[in-house]
Amino acid sequence: MTDCQGDxxxxxxxxxxxxxxxxxxxxTLKSTKADKAEIDxxxxxxxxxxxxxxxxxxQDYKAGCPPSENSVTSENGLPADNDDNAGDExxxxxxxxxxxxxxxxxxxxxxxxxxxxxxxxxDRIEKVTGQTPHHFLRRGIFFSHRDMHQVLDTYEKNxxxxxxxxxxxxxxxxxxxxxxxxxxxxxxxxxxxxxxxxQLTDDEKxxxxxxxxxxxxxFARENAKDIIACGFDINKTFIFSDLDYMGASPQxxxxxxxxxxxxxxxxxxxxxxxTDSDCIGKISFPAIQAAPSFSNSFPHIFGDKKDIQCLIxxxxxxDPYFRMTRDVAPRIGYPKPALLHSxxxxxxxxxxTKMSASDANSSxxxxxxxxxxxxxxxxxxxxxxxxxxxxxRKFGGNVDVDVSFMYLTFFLEDDQKLEKIxxxxxxxxxxxxxxxxxxxxxxxxxxxxxxxxxxEITDETVExxxxxxxxxxxx
Length: 475
Ligand code: TRP
Description:
Helix content: 40-55%
Strand order of the largest sheet: 3-4-9-8-5-6-7
Radius of gyration: 23 Å
Number of helices: 21
Number of strands: 11
Shape: globular
Strand content: 5-15%
Low-confidence stretches: 1-9, 69-82
Bound molecules: tryptophan
Largest sheet: 7 strands, mixed
Mean pLDDT: 90
């Protein structure tokens, strides 16, 4: 931050004009496929201008609305500027865009006020941990953060921190997209050697879906098996169902109540879009998702320590919960949780929506057989290739909209192989059928290995992970 001086006297109107010009520049750079570093720099400046503007004008920037007419916009994913991504909707209940390339994540960073995971941060993670950064970090699948530098400072000072993530158990059927945050969290746990708490929000799914309490509770245990199969350390991981743990832990409930006292109905309406006809369970639920961010919610792990830093890896659609959490934290005497945000895992039909368990044809489930995986990819995976082989050879394919290629960025670890596939597909040397074949052969063993690990997990093992108990934790 060296460019702050001299800005103090800038008026809201001047900032508004600068912002509009900077927005145009970012769009031009993107449409002309400018150098990535140049786009990143322009987006960073755009973000800074938006923050300055909010400070100066007391309201969020909105294209086409100069400061005097501007009304405060909520951050719940409502449409913003007018371009390909104008209709992007990103909130805990819906993710959609009209753009086949998917959601514009740079714009989301600006809209949510988070920070980009840039090369500098990836390099620092490598330096601090002495490990090659996970390919989700190298490839921008985890693309945004809040306060990650502070977490690394903590780690460098040998001070403790812990991980928190979760899952809403809405069905038995988990798909490959659900694994992304857990695969990454497992990597973080190994690299930093720290405790992890996993919240299974069976209460949330009961409130939002047409399911019974017992169904949700049962799904939580089933999903726990898939989570455990990602390889978490039993001595460092506590998985809990809200329906069980809320009643069993006075400290957890005390934190829920503290949070509830410090957030108004107006605030949650603004953040989550609740209306007067939503049941009161929904309205108070965000406090329950916030509570695990605070270490004294888990006395069996952290004793009465209330100041242990929390780091939350999650998909970006969960950010509204944690914006709220970070807002209340200092007011109730707790540190703000840090965050690492991932992009969405696209549906087979295209990146306009994320993979959804309620649409069987959009998803590859963790229970699918090798044959089902093959058939679904061949039949449904949206292709960025041309209609005929001749045209494809001549003009090449488009990896930016090709779902098979996108999935390979998630699951093919070898950077060189991936780069070669990108080049060959773009040039037309690699036809769609072959690309799909590579994806099928990459995914089949990954799913088969997951199924084998899951089969080994007994009810006793699940019971142990889900029992409140001390964890190995070096203070
Ligand atoms: N609300 C999330 C879902 O529906 C579950 C969840 C609870 C979660 N706590 C979390 C996700 C923390 C990420 C991080 O899936």
